[in-house]
Amino acid sequence: MIYSYTQISQYLTCPRRYRHHYLDGWRDKDTRAAMLFGRAFERALAAYFRHEDAAAVLFRDWAICKDTRLEYGKSDTWDRMLQQGIQLLERFAQDDRASAFTSLAATCRSSSCDQFVARTIS
Q1: What's the CA gap between 44 and 40, in Å, rounded?
Q2: Are both 18 and 62 inside the same structural domain?
Q3: Where does residue 89 rank: exposed (0-12), middle (13-18), buried (19+ CB within 10 A)?
Q4: Could you give the 3-state DSSP secondary structure of residue 71?
Q5: Same domain, 8 and 38
Q6: Backbone conformation region of residue 87, classed left if phi is above 0, alpha if psi is from -120 to 50, else beta
Q7: Which whole-number Å values give the CA distances from 11 to 2, 6, 54, in the listed order?
Q8: pLDDT tens-digit series, residues 59-108
Q9: Do 41 and 7 share a structural domain?
Q10: Which domain range does residue 98 map to?
């Protein structure tokens, strides 16, 4: 078995926490918006590479967090992070010479994101 630096560090800091996390599979409930958004964005990119609708995956996974009490950065809000995610997906698709996100992003800008998310999820 190969151990990462983080695993060794966790074990040396607190063997019980290491056991709960790596052996028992316990996970801390994350309330940081940036972490949860990052996970949603990673799933969206994975969908992109599977030739699925990455924007729909981002909207669906991030919408789950909308009514959750989260810790946001200074100028971050749920809506602002969603818009940033759309822009990142557009840039990613543009660099890949793909246009999968153009119509979805335009739709989100022209109507309220709430309506777009609701339509995407259903």
Answers
A1: 6
A2: no
A3: buried
A4: strand
A5: no
A6: alpha
A7: 14, 9, 37
A8: 999 999 898 888 999 999 999 999 999 999 888 888 665 544 544 555 55
A9: no
A10: 33-121
- Write down how long the chain is: 122
If you compute the radius of gyration of the chain from its CA atoms, what whole number of angstroms results?
Answer: 18
Tokens representing 98? 């793909």
**112 alpha carbon, distance to own chain's centre:** 20
Both structure tokens of 84? 């940033």
Residues 112 and 53 in one domain: yes
Q: Same structural domain for residues 10 and 48?
A: no
What pLDDT does 37 receive?
Answer: 94
Distances (CA, A) of 70 to 15, 73, 82, 110: 29, 10, 14, 27
| Beta-carbon contacts of residue 117 (< 8 Å; ≥ 6 apart) | 59, 60, 62, 63, 66, 82
Considering its fold, how many domains does the chain have in total?
2
SS3 of residue 9 by DSSP = helix
pTM: 0.59
Phi first, then psi: give them for residue 71, nearest 5 degrees: -95, 110
